[in-house]
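User: Hi! I have a protein structure encoded as tokens and I'd like to know what sequence might fold into it. I'm fairly new to this, so please keep things simple.
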């Protein structure tokens, strides 16, 4: 799906400079950055779900530690 991305001028200039240094396009850099962001967000969701599970599994032990 096509979309338009409007960047502040200073960010666009920095992206242009980085793209030139890496011999790639701004588009390719944005795709890479977006992919990394989505992957990191998924990892964060999995970690938070695991923490929730640990809290449930060890709720009694946690309560005892709080009372100590």
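Assistant: Happy to help. Inverse folding works backwards from shape to sequence: for each of the 68 positions I chose a residue that suits the local structure. Here it is:
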């Amino acid at each position: 799906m096509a979309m338009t991305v409007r960047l502040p001028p200073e960010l666009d200039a920095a992206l242009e400079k980085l793209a030139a240094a890496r011999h790639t396009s701004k588009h390719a850099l944005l795709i890479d950055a977006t992919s990394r962001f989505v992957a990191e967000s998924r990892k964060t969701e999995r970690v938070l779900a695991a923490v929730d599970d640990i809290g449930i599994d060890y709720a009694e032990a946690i309560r005892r530690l709080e009372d100590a």
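A useful reference point when you look it over: The longest helix spans residues 26-57. Feel free to ask if any position seems puzzling.
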